[in-house]
Design a protein that fits this description.
Radius of gyration: 25 Å
CATH superfamily of the largest domain: CoaB-like
Shape: globular
Strand order of the largest sheet: 13-12-9-14-17-18-19-20
Distance between the termini: 28 Å
Strand content: 15-25%
Number of domains: 2
CATH topology of the largest domain: Rossmann fold
Number of helices: 13
Number of strands: 20
């Protein structure tokens, strides 16, 4: 990541964009700035031109001589777009496909990561329309830097204050850092998410796994140069970037069949999915109607994907996960031995659906490394770093 395009909108926090641009320049990034017309009424373009050492773009119809279609050339030039501050207006525009000024047009033409550093009045921040627009954009891969609580221009203490400029720059760097390509050309199979075991056309048995850890591992492995096959049960997550193959499954049996097909051809397999141990023995083709008395559902064992990979393992490096509610290390070590693993990640089951996790990386009784609680997308790199081929 070398070229950062900063978009400045007409929120009162626009003056803080100068500090963000200055910090990015001091860290060695090439910075260009697009301002909306309203932003120029809060902070002068000359300030940002001086700090970025580049011309500031405002008007789509600027008469300065040039020979490129600027909204396309800027979108191609940028490795990343940071909108700071991101107002209710700009989020709404992008979410609804409106491109009526230089900034919204460049964003619409850009295929690189786009970050919105939110800042606005608390009532706007809590407006359900904004929430819907954010969720819509997240599905398309847009990223958001949450606002902080603090004293706002509307004279109240509430959420809506632009996050500290140092933190904004830190988030951008952390999530877009160039990583060592230590898994270059390695083939990696990762399972993620939960499985669903159908009872009838409407009902199923499942668990609370969000899939965040498996998806974070897949994205991190791809950034480290691996050819990643992600086999995913149902989740609400966006497909990670850079995958060689993404295979969507629903049941444990479906996941088992895919993993058995792919396992022989990979160097590393990481079983992160929360696979159902049991499934209903009988499936009803029609919805089961409510009747008097209790309903009994007889369960039968699902195939053990990790155990079978352990039996078939030749030179592959095999990693499992143990989500436990008690006797964490003891249970993880038992699973490590029974399933012929190279490594197992032990964590408390209460961390399901959270964005953070604290884990123990276990390679035997005498090799247990504790990793303190951190975001799962950061933790993924710690886990992958422990794989020694």
């Amino acid at each position: 990541m070398k070229n950062i395009l900063v978009g400045v909108t007409g929120g009162i926090a626009a003056y803080k964009s100068a500090n963000v641009v200055s910090k990015l320049k001091k860290k060695g990034y090439n910075v260009k700035v697009i301002m909306t017309e309203n932003a120029t009424k809060i902070i002068a373009p000359l300030t940002l031109e001086t700090l970025s050492r580049n011309r500031v773009y405002v008007d789509m119809w600027d008469k300065n001589p040039h020979f490129e279609v600027e909204h396309i050339s800027l979108a191609d030039w940028a490795d990343l777009i940071l909108v700071v501050p991101a107002t209710y207006n700009i989020v709404g525009k992008v979410a609804n496909g409106i491109a009526d000024d230089m900034l919204s047009t460049v964003i619409s033409a850009c295929k690189k990561p786009v970050y919105f550093a939110l800042a606005m009045n608390v009532n706007m921040y809590e407006n359900p329309i904004l929430r819907e627009n954010r969720e819509k954009l997240k599905k398309y891969g847009y990223k958001f830097i949450e606002a902080d609580e603090g004293f706002l221009a509307c004279n109240v203490n509430a959420k809506g204050r632009l996050k500290d400029e140092d933190e904004i720059v830190e988030i951008i760097e952390r999530e877009n850092k160039d990583v060592e390509k230590r898994l270059l050309n390695k083939k990696v199979l990762i399972t993620a998410g939960r499985t669903e075991e159908a009872i009838d056309p409407i009902r199923y048995l499942s668990n609370r796994s969000s899939g965040q850890m498996g998806y974070s591992l897949a994205e991190a492995a791809a950034k480290m140069g691996a050819e990643v096959i992600l086999v995913s049960g149902p989740t609400n997550l966006n497909k990670p970037d850079g995958l060689r193959e993404f295979i969507q499954v629903r049941s444990a049996q479906e996941m088992y069949e895919v993993c058995m097909e792919k396992f022989e051809k990979v160097d590393i397999a990481i079983a992160c999915a929360a696979v159902a141990d049991y499934r209903p023995k009988t499936y009803s083709n029609e919805k089961i109607k409510k009747q008097d008395g209790d309903l009994t559902i007889v369960l039968e064992r699902n195939p053990d994907i990790l155990l079978e990979m352990g039996k078939r393992k030749k030179d592959q490096y095999l990693v499992g996960f143990a989500a436990e509610t008690q006797n964490l290390i003891e249970n993880a070590l038992g699973k490590y031995r029974r399933k012929n693993l190279n490594m197992i990640i032990a964590n408390d089951a209460s961390n399901m659906q959270k964005t953070t996790n604290k884990v123990y990386i276990v390679k035997g009784e005498n090799s247990i490394v504790e990793v303190s609680e951190k975001e799962k997308n950061e933790l993924a790199y710690d886990i992958l770093a422990e794989i020694k081929l």
